[in-house]
């Protein structure tokens, strides 16, 4: 008996881990008739709603949440791996794609122990230790940054693909050739738009400090419309901060149509996850990046520094701002740092245009298609031994 291919994308914990998988899944569904696609995560409502909103099946499993400590992490990994082994067998899974996040490690470890085809996606410049171990046995590890190569096992099968961007961002890129951007991107006779992406989980420091930073700018903010994504549970608090600061802003919990918002934006303030940067690059959107200052967010600073080196953004090192040894207390204030970086960009079209060109130069269009093709090849190779009915991939439209 033959079965149709069933691909599981394992990841989550943050939507930035899910978005690359959604981009790849969209292309696979176009190319492989009758493919079954499931996303495996830790069960958070925002994850489930996002995945099912795209039309895919979502499954949550015990042991696949963000660990709260070393003992809990060991227990969750053990439980998660056994649950994943059962699930991969019970649901006749053909291929597992690890996206990053709490579900990746147990799911890929289970696939590798069963000899199932598996791909690891690494969107950051500094892979975590768990990904380095998984990469050693993965059929393929797709990385977003060339700089990640030296941190992964020398015998790992690697492809420098870039991080996948969702289809909406790919379409923006196709419309934004650099000459056209230079002519029209920053001279439109309309209100300019500053977008602040506070994070679905609530990048609290951006919610807390951006309103007071903008209040410091005064007339430099004239002619700008502020749109701020606050994250779940922080809408009212963030609105109140803007009201107290005397800054007019549209605050929303979540920007559903992020590609459309970014296409109309002129400047963005956000974190520096690999998936976020890949989509900003496709949109050619200049940015002030504030990498996650927590110890777990260290890879974001390296990502941001690489983009800064290429002239694509301004960077505020939030971790450095928290250094108690800094004598000048004002130098430790994120509001002050944000105002300092934003001021020249709000008033100087040429500076924003230069950053936009740097962003476009960092774009890797077609990353999702390249990884989808690798998925199809692995499934096709395994098909004769696993009884899979794999139709020839449909050619992708030019």
From TrEMBL:
GO terms for biological process: carbohydrate metabolic process; cell division; cell wall organization; peptidoglycan biosynthetic process; regulation of cell shape. Keywords: Cell cycle, Cell division, Cell membrane, Cell shape, Cell wall biogenesis/degradation, Glycosyltransferase, Membrane, Peptidoglycan synthesis, Transferase. GO terms for molecular function: UDP-N-acetyl-D-glucosamine:N-acetylmuramoyl-L-alanyl-D-glutamyl-meso-2,6-diaminopimelyl-D-alanyl-D-alanine-diphosphoundecaprenol 4-beta-N-acetylglucosaminlytransferase activity; undecaprenyldiphospho-muramoylpentapeptide beta-N-acetylglucosaminyltransferase activity. InterPro entries: GlcNAc_MurG, Glyco_trans_28_C, GlycoTrans_28_N. UDP-N-acetyl-alpha-D-glucosamine binds at residues 124, 166, 300. Pathway: Cell wall biogenesis; peptidoglycan biosynthesis. Residues 7-131 form the Glycosyltransferase family 28 N-terminal domain. Residues 194-322 form the Glycosyl transferase family 28 C-terminal domain. It is found in: Cell membrane. Gene3D superfamilies: Glycogen Phosphorylase B (3.40.50.2000). It catalyses: di-trans,octa-cis-undecaprenyl diphospho-N-acetyl-alpha-D-muramoyl-L-alanyl-D-glutamyl-meso-2,6-diaminopimeloyl-D-alanyl-D-alanine + UDP-N-acetyl-alpha-D-glucosamine = di-trans,octa-cis-undecaprenyl diphospho-[N-acetyl-alpha-D-glucosaminyl-(1->4)]-N-acetyl-alpha-D-muramoyl-L-alanyl-D-glutamyl-meso-2,6-diaminopimeloyl-D-alanyl-D-alanine + UDP + H(+). It is an enzyme of class 2 (transferase). This is UDP-N-acetylglucosamine--N-acetylmuramyl-(pentapeptide) pyrophosphoryl-undecaprenol N-acetylglucosamine transferase.
């Amino acid at each position: 008996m033959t079965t149709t291919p069933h691909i599981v994308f394992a990841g989550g914990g943050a939507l930035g881990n899910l978005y690359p998988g959604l981009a790849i899944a969209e292309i696979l569904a176009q190319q492989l008739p009758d493919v079954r696609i499931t996303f495996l995560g830790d069960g958070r409502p925002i994850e489930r709603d996002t995945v099912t909103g795209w039309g895919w099946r979502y499954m949550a499993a015990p042991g696949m949440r963000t660990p709260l400590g070393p003992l809990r992490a060991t227990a969750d990994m053990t439980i998660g791996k056994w649950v994943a082994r059962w699930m991969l067998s019970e649901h006749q899974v053909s291929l597992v794609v690890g996206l990053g996040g709490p579900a990746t490690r147990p799911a890929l470890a289970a696939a590798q122990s069963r000899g199932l085809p598996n791909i690891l996606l690494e969107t950051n410049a500094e892979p975590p230790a768990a990904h380095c171990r998984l990469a050693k046995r993965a059929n393929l590890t797709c990385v977003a940054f060339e700089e990640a190569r030296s941190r992964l096992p020398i015998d790992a099968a690697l492809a420098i693909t870039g991080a996948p961007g969702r289809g909406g961002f790919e379409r923006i890129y196709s419309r934004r050739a650099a000459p056209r951007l230079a002519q029209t991107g920053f001279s439109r006779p309309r209100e300019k738009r500053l977008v602040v992406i506070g994070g679905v989980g609530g990048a609290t420091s951006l919610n807390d400090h951006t309103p007071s930073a903008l209040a410091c700018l005064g007339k430099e903010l004239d002619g700008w419309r502020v749109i701020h994504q606050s994250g779940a549970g922080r809408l009212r608090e963030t609105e109140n901060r803007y009201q107290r600061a005397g800054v007019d802003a549209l605050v929303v919990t979540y920007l559903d149509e992020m590609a459309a918002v970014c296409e109309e934006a002129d400047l963005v303030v956000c974190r520096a996850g690999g998936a976020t940067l890949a989509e900003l690059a496709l949109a050619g959107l200049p940015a002030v990046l504030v990498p996650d200052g927590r110890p777990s967010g260290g890879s974001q600073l390296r990502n941001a520094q690489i983009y800064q080196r290429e002239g694509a953004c301004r960077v505020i090192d939030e971790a450095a701002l928290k250094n108690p040894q800094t004598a000048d207390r004002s130098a430790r204030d994120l509001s002050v740092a944000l105002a300092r970086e934003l001021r020249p960009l709000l008033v100087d079209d040429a500076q924003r245009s230069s950053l936009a060109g740097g962003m476009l130069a960092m774009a890797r269009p077609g990353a999702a298609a390249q990884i989808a093709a690798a998925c199809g090849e692995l499934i096709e190779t395994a098909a004769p031994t696993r009884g899979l009915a794999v139709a020839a991939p449909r050619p992708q439209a030019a």
